[in-house]
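Lab meeting tomorrow. Look over both lines:
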Amino acid sequence: MIDTIPLPATDDPHDAPFWSAALRSELVVQSCEGCARLRFPPRPVCPYCQSTAHQWRVLSGAATVWSYAKPSSPLLPAFEALTPYVVVLAQIDEDPSIRIIGNLVSPAGGGITGVDDAGLAIGAPLRVAFRQYAPDVALPCWTLLGEAVGE
């Protein structure tokens, strides 16, 4: 872990339940009580029907690679010590319109550096894996499904 990487604020009332669930290794998104559509990122009003009523739905954690990048020169200096690493934009199985970004990580608790990305391709199956970076911050990351522990 790098102490200087920027971390999200987890106390915003609109997305605090997302961060609390992440600490429990659960991937959740908002589900509108007006139109039943899923939405991410969290927001106070449904972009489809403008309802303010919602609940949090636990997802399976299954996804596919929609896109990915392996930055050779990160934009933020704090990430330089972590190179090389892979960033994945994961398309969520329950709703393909939802995409969540995160690092590709090695199975069994490994970090974001030194990850074998040989099997990485658009459409490759993924499983969410959480990595805790601070007492109040766990970030969703992704493992290639064939490499996931127990798969």
Notes: The chain has one helix and eight strands. The mean pLDDT is 89. Residues 16-147 form a domain with the OB fold (Dihydrolipoamide Acetyltransferase, E2P) fold (CATH 2.40.50.840).
